[in-house]
Design goal:
Helix content is 41%, strand content 12%. With 430 residues, the chain is α/β, with parallel strands linked by helices. It has two domains: 147 residues, Aspartate Aminotransferase, domain 1, CATH 3.90.1150; 230 residues, Type I PLP-dependent aspartate aminotransferase-like (Major domain) (Aspartate Aminotransferase, domain 2). The strands form three sheets. Strands 2-8-7-6-5-3-4 form a seven-stranded mixed sheet, with helices on both faces. It has a three-stranded antiparallel sheet with strand order 9-12-11. It has a two-stranded parallel sheet with strand order 1-10. β5, α7 and β6 form a beta-alpha-beta unit. α2 runs antiparallel to α11, α3 packs parallel to α11 and α4 packs parallel to α5. The longest helix has 20 residues. 45% of the residues are buried. Bound molecules: pyridoxal-5'-phosphate (PLP).
């Protein structure tokens, strides 16, 4: 007899097993202290639903290519083709494969000897740090570097030595105190959009015998003459040991990448837990990334438009009195401070059709919550104007005057290293 939903013997759904006290207490703390007390019973991440008329600034699809026909067609051709796929970890791949051809193509594009495709930016960062550091190797991390880099230090059982954001003097003091190790920075910081003073960091890494890792998640595809990233743009390819990137930003896919030497690539396959113990990407995903690279290389107008849009917004929003915390990129954040103030800001923006992403601890330092705008190249002039107009209109409603970030802007003493000095900005762009 043919089965259908009505004659299938669907299993009874049971309530989950009761959590032991230690877990129940922990979950209760979340609901009581955070959801009820701080957020007034609602989920800070979820507000109103955007509609067709809304301006959406949540996606990191900076070049607006996630629906590009060339990318979609290349993926669907592979999905509809006869060939199957091997479900296994990438460490077993050898000989000529689409994955290895793509790795080499992207590595060449970035001016690197070798590239390793990973399942995500998270896997690239945790797997890399875990395979280059250990309990005897300090890992120096900018306080605003992405959580995956901290997690990498943690899984290497290495000591994570924090330095103030973009503060070369503080990094040098830490290096003198703890000795040679791994220095880890983002080229463009994902919460405040500031650029790393890469030239100064490279000099310090060399002077102190350190390995240097630069996470280019927010500059690959968007920075450089053809999107090859900030390290290449600054001509530092042969002075940075490893570059990592999430390909879920400008590359609009689901993958991560590491540039390295040929010798390191072969070693990595035997050392990195995510590479060994987690399966590799599927063929249509690799083909999609391959097509994306061509789009990124050939459609330079998207980068120009992106930077023009971002510059317009940075200029006009900061002129309204918002402290953009040194943003020099397509990431623009309004730092409302406490989580309660952030709910107010989110509501004010969303009720006027502007949707950004809320970030708060642990994604930001405590009480430095933000609404982040990820600018993209498809925003029209009228959308840009609407964003600025809304930012102007809500200033009283969100109490902008009294945000700690606004007070810092007025010249009150800022917490060490949280603002980027003009000198650092120049160094990064030199
Ligand atoms: C700087 C940075 N590195 C790494 C990641 C992790 O990338 P993925 O989302 O591909 O795991 C992100 C994403 O949030 C990021 O912003």
């Amino acid at each position: 007899m043919k089965s259908n939903a009505s004659n299938l013997n669907l299993p009874h759904v049971f309530p989950s097993a009761k959590e032991p006290n230690f877990l129940e207490r922990r979950i209760n703390r979340h609901y009581r202290d955070r959801v009820q007390e701080l957020w007034g019973g609602r989920n800070l991440l979820h507000g109103m639903k955007p509609d067709a008329d809304s301006v959406q600034l949540m996606s990191n699809d900076y070049l607006a290519i996630s629906t590009h026909p060339d990318i979609r067609n290349s993926q669907s051709e592979v999905l509809l083709s006869e060939g199957g796929c091997m479900l296994m970890s990438a460490v077993f791949l050898h000989g000529d494969s689409p994955q290895q051809r793509f790795e080499q193509r992207l590595a060449n594009f970035m001016g690197a000897e070798r590239g390793i495709l990973c399942q995500s930016g998270w896997c690239a960062n945790t797997g890399l740090i875990q395979s280059i550091a250990d309990a005897q190797t300090p890992v120096y991390i900018d306080m605003l570097a992405h959580m995956s880099l901290w997690e990498g230090a943690h899984s290497a059982r290495a000591e994570a030595v924090m330095f103030h954001h973009n503060d070369l003097n503080h990094l040098e003091r830490q290096l003198l105190k703890h000795g040679p190790g791994v220095i880890v920075v983002d080229s463009v910081y994902s919460t405040n959009g500031s650029l790393c003073p890469l030239q100064g960091i490279v000099n310090l890494a060399e002077a102190h015998g350190c390995v240097l890792v630069v996470d280019e998640s927010h500059s690959l595809g968007t920075h450089g003459n053809h999107g090859e990233g900030l390290v290449s743009y600054l001509g530092l390819e042969d002075r940075v040991h490893f570059r990592t990137a999430s390909l879920a930003k400008a590359f609009s896919g689901r993958a991560g990448f590491i540039t390295c030497s040929e010798r390191f690539g072969n070693y990595f396959a035997f050392e990195s837990n995510p590479a060994i113990f987690s399966s590799t990407l599927l063929p249509h995903e690799i083909e999609g990334l391959n097509a994306t690279l061509t789009v990124i290389q050939t459609e330079g107008w998207r980068r120009e438009k992106l930077h023009a849009n971002a510059e317009y917004l940075r200029f006009h929003i900061s002129a309204l009195g918002y402290n953009l915390n040194g943003s020099e990129s397509q990431i623009i954040s309004l730092e409302s401070g406490t989580e309660r103030q952030t709910i107010k800001l989110k509501d004010a923006l969303e009720s006027r059709g502007i949707f950004g992403s809320a970030f708060f601890a642990p994604a930001t330092p405590k009480n430095r919550a933000i609404i982040r705008f990820s600018v993209n190249s498809s925003l029209t002039e009228s959308e840009l104007d609407r964003i600025v107009r809304v930012c102007a209109d809500i200033r009283n409603e969100v109490d902008l005057e009294n945000w700690p970030s606004t007070r810092r802007n007025r010249g009150a003493k800022s917490p060490a290293g949280l603002l980027v000095s003009a000198e650092h900005k120049e160094a990064a762009l030199a």
